[in-house]
Design a protein that fits this description.
Strand content: 5-15%
Distance between the termini: 17 Å
Shape: globular
Largest sheet: 6 strands, mixed
Number of strands: 8
Helix content: 40-55%
Number of helices: 12
Order of helices and strands: HEEEEEHHEHEEHHHHHHHH
Number of domains: 1
Radius of gyration: 18 Å
Length: 295
């Protein structure tokens, strides 16, 4: 997604929850960085390593005003009627594929990550791009960890793929990684993620100036989530495959450039990522992008 559009949507999501003046952004208000819950809910009795079917929401304030719901490996997708069931299901399948096993997967860490995502209500609203304007979902945002949205109908395969992967990674780093690996991925100024972000800013690899006018705590969380997305997506090769040549915000778009210039951060951060998630295959992502881009 174009970075100016992305910034606009971040600001719109934050303001839709109230707190545009910073009044709803603090941890004392039960949210970290304006979106991540600090109070856990109980786990369900069944395994969370599953993808549910698309079903109707229960009509409560927890999900108001969304009408459809699906849960995939601890993360909840909410949508309104205009979003196709196939898009909701395909986002759930994308998340499922990210939890496929690899040589580096740690089953215990993966289970903890998925449980943390559920306990702290990691949630992604899904939209058709044209439906987002003037849509009020304050109730659901108050009751869940909602940090961004995913829209179907992007203009090309590549932009649709990155629209999906960026916002899945946002909720995973903000919730699952934050609670599972607080020393490495915590939304704090003492985590490895923060230290590496500052290194990238000081080295002119990451230009975070577009976020500087936000409320202080929200600004830190947003800068961390954006840096985390750039870092993981570049390490996975998503930027070289699906990205563009715009380096105004992030310059280390290839895995080799990231490893060469931020080798210590790469080793520390990606060693934890690799214990939990992997990128979906390009074959899967190509089909996903083609199926849901605009005609």
């Amino acid at each position: 997604m174009d970075q100016k559009i992305c910034l606009f949507l971040i600001l719109l999501i934050f303001s839709s929850c109230g707190g545009g003046d910073g009044s709803s952004s603090s941890s004392s208000d039960n949210k970290i960085g304006g979106c991540v819950l600090t109070t856990a809910r109980a786990l369900p009795g069944s395994s969370l390593k599953a993808v549910s079917s698309v079903s109707a929401t229960d009509g409560s304030a927890t999900y108001d005003p969304f009408t459809k719901i699906l849960t995939s490996y601890g993360t909840t997708m909410l949508s309104i009627a205009s979003v196709s069931d196939s898009f909701v299901s395909d986002i759930g399948t994308t998340i499922q594929k990210m939890f496929d096993s690899s040589d580096d997967t740690d089953n215990d860490d993966q289970n903890t990550f998925i449980e943390n995502s559920y306990k702290y209500a990691a949630t992604i609203p899904l939209f058709v791009a044209t439906d987002f304007n003037n849509f009020d979902f304050k109730n659901s945002k108050d009751n869940n960890s909602i940090c961004d949205t995913i829209s179907a109908g992007q203009e090309s395969r590549n932009t649709q793929v990155l629209e999906i992967m960026e916002h899945i990674l946002h909720i995973m780093t903000n919730v699952g990684f934050h609670y599972t690996y607080p020393n490495e991925w915590g939304l704090t100024t003492s985590s490895t993620l923060y230290t590496c972000m500052q290194e990238a800013i000081n080295s002119n690899y990451f230009n975070a100036s577009s976020y500087d006018n936000m409320d202080a705590e929200v600004k830190i969380r947003i800068k961390l989530q954006e840096f985390a997305y750039w870092f993981i997506s570049s390490a996975w090769g998503l930027q070289t495959t699906y990205g563009d040549n715009d380096t105004s915000e992030w310059t280390l778009k290839s895995q080799s450039a990231l490893q060469s210039n931020m080798s210590s951060c790469y080793s520390t951060l990606m060693s934890t990522v690799n214990k939990v998630i992997i990128p979906p295959s390009n074959t899967f992502l190509n089909t996903l992008g083609d199926d849901h881009k605009s005609d």
